[in-house]
Amino acid sequence: MVKKAIALALILGLGLIFAALLLGYAPDAALNETAAYYATRTADEIGAQNIVTAIIVTYRGLDTLGEVTVLFLTAAIVGLVLSRTRAGDNAPRLSDLPPPGELLEIGTKLLVPLILLFGAYVFINGHLTPGGGFQGGAILASAILLMLLTDPLRRSSHRLISRIESSAGLFYVVIGVLGAALAGGFLDNRILPLGEFGALFSAGAIPVIYALIGLKVGAEFSSMMVSLSETEDE
Amino acid sequence: MDIFLLADEHLGLFNYWIVIVLMMSGFYVVIAQHNLLKKVVGLNIFQVSVFLFYISMGKVDGGSAPIFKDGVEVLSNPLPHVLILTAIVVGVAATALALALVVRIKHAFGTVEEDEIQAIEHDEEDIA
Question: What value of ipTM does the predicted structure carry?
Answer without folding.
Answer: 0.80
